[in-house]
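Usage

Read records sequentially. Each one opens with the input sequence:
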Amino acid sequence: MKILIKGYYGFGNLGDDLLALFFTKLKKKYYPNDEIYLFSNASLNNTDFKMNQEYNNYLTHLTDIKKENIIDWTYKGHFEIVINGGGGT
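and closes with the structure output:
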C-alpha cells in the first residue's frame, strides 16, 4: 500500500516537521511494510523557493523516508491512504 503524508514540510518549520516525524512513526507502527511518501514543495520544481537544492535533505534524516519518496506537486501517482497535516491544512 502507498501512503502519502501531505503538509508544509521541508521549509524549516519545527512544528510542521515534528508532525511529519509523528506521522511517520505512526505509519511504522501500524503499517510497517507499506511504502510511505512525504509531500514537500521545497524542491527544484518550485521556482519560487530560492534555497539550495539540498535544503530539505534533513527530512530524510528526521523521518527515515527515502529521498526519492519525498515528492512535490509534479509527482504523478496514486495513494491508498493520504494523511493531511501541517501547514494550516
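Summary fields computed downstream for this record:
- The beta strands are 2-6, 35-39, 70-71, 81-84.
- The chain has one domain: 2-84.
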